[in-house]
Amino acid sequence: MRENMNTQTxxxxxxxxxxxxPLVVNLTNYVVMNNTANALLAVGxxxxxAHSREEMAEMMSFAGALVINIGTxxxxxxxxxxxxxxxxxxxxxxxxxxxxxxGASRLRTDTSRQIAKAANKxxxxxxxSEIISLAGEKGQNKGVDALDSTEAAVDAARFLSRExxxxxxxSGEIDFVVTNEGQSQLCNGHxxxxxxxxxxxxxxxxxxxxxxxxxxxxLAAAAILGVAGEIAAxxxxxxxxxxxxxxxxxxxxxxxxxxxxxxLA
Length: 265
Description:
The chain is of the alpha/beta class. Helix content is 51%, strand content 17%. Strands 2-1-3-4-5-8-9-10 form an 8-stranded mixed beta sheet, with helices on both faces. It has a two-stranded antiparallel ribbon with strand order 6-7. Helix 4 (77-90) packs parallel to helix 5 (106-118). The radius of gyration is 17 Å and the shape is globular. The mean pLDDT is 93.
């Protein structure tokens, strides 16, 4: 029964995003701007890539959610991110933090913790190594790639959920969604997906879209990207065609396909 209820919640959330077309502000890295903007459009949301401090207060007054992705940090980006979080807090907007490469450098780890501590309404979406490092344990990082299993990061995610009163999505071969009420796991997706850069960043952006319509666990975004990636990979010869097919699949995804495909526990 729980699985059926969660499946219906995911379906309802997808319908809501397509109907409401929420505006998602993305303060994200240079590598993935195009990927994440197109994925948001394909699922039905409205993306804007905003980095200027001068417009952030205005943006957050009418946006649905804020996505902070630390993938290309420097001394100018960090204060912008902190200011964006402050503005999101003022307007009671959910913040999605993607701690790209957390654990790979002190700058990334310290910035991730600074943002997590500052955010009032927070969802953290990271790979296993990032989640472990953010929680204060030593994750196995290779650049921004995870060498830890998602199962190994569940205890760290529980700690983060308590520490920051947030929800945590660990993405990987098996996705885990950890909240103060419990956890869910998803077994959708495909082994080809990590060969497209920014796939996790795409999940973070989609998480922002669903948070904007009130689905703040991160489950709907993880489920929908996992199913879409699985279908797209079956139609693709390699990562290049997967990238295009993923957008088409997100655009075409329907209720029947989700019911048939979801592997949720």
